[in-house]
Design brief:
The chain is mainly alpha-helical and 307 residues long. The protein contains 11 helices and 2 strands; from the N terminus they run ααααβαααααβαα. Helix content is 81%, strand content 1%. 52% of the residues are buried.
Length: 307
């Protein structure tokens, strides 16, 4: 068992290193492509960056759902959204303040996209109230997500944007590969440690796996904040939360109806709604230490209710 624990720790260390290196390459090339394509970095963050960093949630939830681990799959989606708000966005706020001595100013469109994020959170609660997310509801979530992405891509290009960019699609793909491989290794190590400790499947999904699949978002947002691309740091969280509900849960329910337990309806989803409401209010203001502390508080409360 000592060898297995050592292997799990090695997976964690290598995974975290790949996450950091992949995030650097990914953010640099995403910004370059945004300039080249003449779209705002906020839209790139809500779409391309958010979709790429949500790929672990897609893969983990679909694999878990098709293998009969429905509690793990749903817990991953809810826990990832809570992690994005209370861990990823909170850390970005605190890092930005520490590095620059000022707050993150909301980008154009951040408030509107925050409202969409809140609407999807309420929609998740609504479809879960009857104890199951059906195939029809899954199709509805998917169509809403695709309509949202289509609306985003029709937004006018920012005035005065530079047509020159230094982004590269192959390098962007390499960055995504680093993020995904790093997330996979990190999750493998974390789940092995959690199972060794005797933690239940739902709690593993809501905490260890959820935080693990949120590591690309964490790496992406922290790298964006560190490099001064504050709009990507915020947009990544908003877009990922929307994608987790509309895309990931939609696909999962389309494959097979997703049962929802009483604990999820009565405890975890209301906490997610409160955290999303708080984030929606905070995104209208400059995001600094106070915002980071409030969001982190929701995450700690979430963990306290589970453990």
């Amino acid at each position: 068992r000592g060898d297995l624990m050592l292997e799990a720790l090695v997976f964690l260390a290598v995974g975290l290193l790949l996450l950091m290196r992949g995030a650097d390459a990914f953010i640099e090339n995403a910004v370059g492509l945004a300039r080249e394509w003449g779209v705002s970095t906020h839209v790139i963050g809500v779409t391309l960056v958010a979709f790429a960093t949500s790929l672990p949630e897609v893969l983990v939830s679909l694999l878990a759902g098709t293998r009969g681990h429905d509690a793990l799959a749903l817990g991953n989606i809810i826990g990832s959204n809570m992690s994005n708000l209370g861990l990823v966005l909170a850390c970005a706020c605190l890092l930005c303040w520490y590095r620059y001595g000022h707050c993150i100013l909301p980008a154009a469109g951040a408030v509107t996209d925050g409202q969409v994020m809140l609407a999807f959170a309420f929609l998740l609660y609504g479809v879960a109230l009857d104890g199951s997310v059906s195939r029809v509801e899954g199709v509805f979530l998917l169509l809403l997500y695709l309509a949202y992405v289509g609306w985003l891509l029709r937004r006018p290009a920012p005035a005065g944007g530079s047509p020159e960019g230094d982004g590269s699609l192959p390098q962007l793909a390499l960055g995504v590969a680093g993020l995904l491989l790093g997330a996979h290794l990190t999750i493998e190590g974390a789940v092995a440690i959690a199972e060794w400790a005797g933690i239940s499947e739902l709690v593993i999904g809501l905490t260890v796996v959820a935080v693990g699949t949120s590591l690309p978002e964490l790496a992406g947002s922290l790298t964006a904040a560190r490099k001064g691309f504050h709009d990507i740091a915020v947009a990544n969280v908003i877009g990922s939360n929307i994608a987790n509900i509309g895309l990931v849960l939609g696909l999962l329910a389309l494959v097979s109806p997703v049962p929802v337990g009483d604990f999820v309806v009565s405890v975890t989803l209301p906490l997610l709604l409160l955290a999303t409401l708080a984030a929606m209010g905070l995104v209208r203001l400059p995001l600094g230490r106070a915002a980071g502390a409030i969001l982190a508080g929701f995450f700690l409360l979430f963990l306290f209710e589970l453990l």
